[in-house]
Amino acid sequence: ERMRAAGLDVTVDVAGNIFGRRPGSDAAPKDREIATLPIDALDWKRFVHSQAGALAYHDPAWSLMLAECYGFRPFALGLFDGGRILAGVPVVETRTLRRRRRWISLPFTDHCPPLAVTASASPEFAAGLDGFRRHAGVERIALELLTMEPDFFSQLLLQLVSTEPVDQAIE
Question: Distance between CA 135 and CA 129 in Å, rounded?
Answer without folding.
Answer: 10
